[in-house]
Amino acid sequence: MAPKLGVTPDYWDEACRHLGKRDRVMKKLIPQFGEARLQNKGDAFTTLARSIVGQQISVKAAQSVWERFAALVGGPSHKLAPGAVLAHEVAGLREAGLSVRKAEYLRDLASHFEAGSVHVRQWAQMDDEAIIEELVAIRGIGRWTAEMFLIFHLMRPNVLPLDDIGLLKGISVNYFSGEPVSRAEAREVGENWAPYRSVATWYLWRSLDPLPVEY
Question: Model pTM?
Answer without folding.
Answer: 0.85
